[in-house]
Amino acid sequence: MENLDQISKIVVKVSTSEGSGSGFYIKSKNLIVTNHHVVAGQRFAAIEKQDKSRYTAKVIMIDPRLDVALLEPNVQLENMPDVQITQTNTLQNRDKVLVMGFPYGMSFTITEGIVSSIKQLVGNQDYIQTDSAINPGNSGGPLVSMNGEILGITTSKLENAESMGFAIPIESIPKEFDIFQKNKDKLFSVVCPSCETLIFKQEDFCPNCGQSLNKKFFLESRLNPLAQFVEEALKIIGIDPTATRDGFDYWKFYKGSALIRVFVYKNEFLYVTCPLVVLPKTNLQDIFSYILSSPLEEGFTFGLFSQENTIYLSYRVHLSDIENETFKEEIKNKIGKILKKSDEMDNFLIDKFSCEPSKHSKV
Questions:
Q1: Which of 38, 237, 290, 340 is deepest in the core (most CB within 10 A)?
Q2: Are 209 and 192 in contact (CB under 8 A)?
Q3: What GO terms in the biological process aspect are recorded for it (predicted)?
Q4: Is the same domain home to 262 and 331?
């Protein structure tokens, strides 16, 4: 169980402006292993540890044939176990295995299953087949034995097929590390699907073996105008926007202890919202009187989510206003102000009215 606990701690969430998946951190190399399709078209990704801390990681090698990518965090991740990748030949059909990751971008989960086939040929690749529950967001996370060995990288589930998931055998990964050693400057690189040469710029053919190369491997996705606007606003107040990305037109991060979410609602409004606190169990009149006294500046509102008894602080702006040059700078200023107010207000409500921290708070 100790080995399983160690492995579970190295599993991270990998997010981009287009979606999210999972990955795992190899401390000795300061690298995150994930699937290529999780970071396809990206040069950077957001990494979220299970303690909710977020970092930016650089995509430095992709192997589209194997569907593997290597990412380098901008800092050495602290308090992470140094788990080694070991190759094992003892895996058998019907062995119990665990899938670790962040399905649908939710919190870290572990699901159990069995090995259906230790060597299932799909296309031109051999995979480990399992009946473990594999959902979008699990991609890139580890498939783990009950003895605490990483067996593979969870990569896919057949569409409309239940109890059929696949993982890339871990035996492939040490070779990926060897190939990466040739990337001395740690630049974005593509592994040739034929000769495994590293290619650092867009080419129609591999300069080493002449293999034709898919141009999409080298293409970099561009942010849409709204995303550019939001990320410019975050930069102004000193926040690294890449580390906040959590999917398409969605950003998530902490300002102090307050969780901030920025997202588009019904293709009509941009919301900046924060779950501040849980209502106190007594003296509700005092806090409601304060909320109803309109203590916030224009455009900011309190809201109450009754199912959680949680007070939210929000700012809403119509997308058409963002497109208007007259209002752009004012809106950016408002975004900065509500982030500061959220960090102040949760502490104020706890101290003044004996509220409890929101379950989303970073305590």
A1: 38
A2: yes
A3: proteolysis
A4: yes
